[in-house]
Specification:
Structural class: mainly alpha
Organism: Lophiotrema nucula
Largest sheet: 2 strands, antiparallel
Number of domains: 2
Radius of gyration: 21 Å
Oligomer: single chain
Distance between the termini: 47 Å
Number of helices: 14
Shape: globular
Protein name: Fungal-specific transcription factor domain-containing protein
Helix content: 55-70%
Strand content: under 5%
Length: 397
């Protein structure tokens, strides 16, 4: 019977809602964009609310591109990119109207565009434009007042890591480094959630350190000792959290210090928090090592990068079961570790590339590597968003 049916997936028979539901399941579980998906799927297509209409089209553009990429259907992906261009044009007009500038729908629309540029990029570092926009919108809106609605809590906690990463990339202090924003509760307030929030706050402070570090590079030499002292202080704060994480991981069935030397993660949450911890170690050591190079700083950087790689390699740490925050933490951690390990120039970097390909099914690989100075996979000129992985790497790790 199969000979009577085409195996090619086409867009025509599929409803928009099915495309969105597919992307929600595969890429956007949990977090603010999952909230946006629910709102879009429950709203009427005939709604005259301009905010909801724009949010629906933004979600549909991301979902259509993702669906087309996953099923290797460039016509579907191109349809999504065309829609995305129209969304950006409408978003600029939308933001020019004061009554729409800081609404939840506007924030969710910009966030959806941001995730599209992270996972399915249209150009190098385009996601930073959306991060700058989100920082501006949240600054205008002001710190969240307690108590928060469930939707507001999901939005503000979901934005935290993205804006911190943007601040680190641009060497600009993020609003999440301010006390009132640091007080925002985590997505979950269990022990693991509290540890993750503490790590996030340290990482947010790193955006301020990066900004001061850039000022030092430009000639503000009076900042040297402050940077040394503050970076060491932040690292001491971070170290205090490690035994707490070890205890949580052990209580939930893992073992961070087994006789074999191979740490066992209890679950996805523990693994994600551990990747975030080691990402923060690298950020702090990058600053310290640039100011005061030492074998210890370099050893801590490399060790953290290898732990991120091993954590990703852990066979149960897969895309299945990860929420949007877990996917984003994984994306950031892998990018940072990739740079430290030297990309394809080292056996460790090549090993990490193979693990990324096998574990995350190209979700991170689509946009994580292009333009990285440490060395990148080759880009297929016939499809700029697809990676041509090197298959002849055989070095053991």
């Amino acid at each position: 019977m199969s000979s009577h049916f085409s195996t090619e997936v086409t867009f025509a028979p599929l409803e928009d809602d099915a495309i969105i539901a597919y992307t929600r399941k595969e890429l956007l579980r949990g977090g603010p964009v999952d909230t946006a998906c629910r709102r879009v799927l429950s709203s009427s297509r005939a709604s005259k609310d301009p905010g909801m209409s724009l949010l629906r089209d933004a979600m549909l553009s991301l979902s259509t591109i993702f669906f087309g990429k996953q099923h290797k259907q460039p016509k579907i992906s191109n349809r999504g990119y065309h829609l995305y261009g129209a969304v950006l044009a409408r978003l600029n007009l939308h933001l020019a109207q004061s009554e729409f500038q800081t609404t939840n729908e506007t924030i969710l629309t910009v966030l959806t565009c941001n995730l599209l540029e992270i996972f399915l990029p249209t150009g190098k570092n385009n996601f930073l434009k959306h991060i700058r926009g989100l920082e501006t919108i949240l600054t205008m809106r002001g710190p969240p007042e307690q108590p928060l609605s469930d939707e507001e809590h999901t939005i503000f906690t979901g934005l935290r890591l993205l804006l911190i990463v943007g601040g680190l990339t641009m060497s600009t202090p993020t609003i999440y480094a301010r006390d009132r924003w640091k007080a925002l509760p985590s997505k979950t307030e269990d022990d693991n959630g509290q540890v993750r929030r503490s790590i996030m706050n340290i990482l947010a402070d790193c955006t301020c350190l990066r900004s001061t570090h850039d000022a030092y590079i430009r000639g503000d030499f009076g900042a040297y000792q402050f940077l040394i002292d503050e970076s060491k202080s932040q690292y001491e704060r971070l170290e205090i959290l490690h035994p707490i994480w070890v205890a949580i991981n052990k209580a939930e069935g893992g073992d961070a210090t087994p006789p074999s030397g191979k740490a066992q993660m209890a679950n996805q949450n523990c693994a994600t928090t551990y990747m975030l911890y080691n990402t923060t170690v690298i950020c702090l050591m990058n600053i310290l090592n640039s100011l005061k190079p030492s074998p210890r700083h370099e050893s801590l950087r490399t060790g953290a990068a290898l732990r991120i790689a091993k954590c990703l390699e852990w066979k149960q740490f897969q895309r299945d079961g990860l929420d949007a925050e877990g996917n984003t933490i994984g994306f950031v951690a892998v990018r940072v570790a990739w740079t430290v390990l030297g990309g394809f120039e080292t056996p460790e970097g090549r090993k990490l590339a193979r693990v990324v390909r096998s574990v995350v099914n190209d979700i991170f690989a689509v946009g994580a590597w292009e333009g990285d100075p440490a060395g990148s996979p080759r880009i297929d000129p016939g499809s700029p968003d697809r990676i041509m992985w090197v298959d002849d790497v055989t070095e053991p790790w």
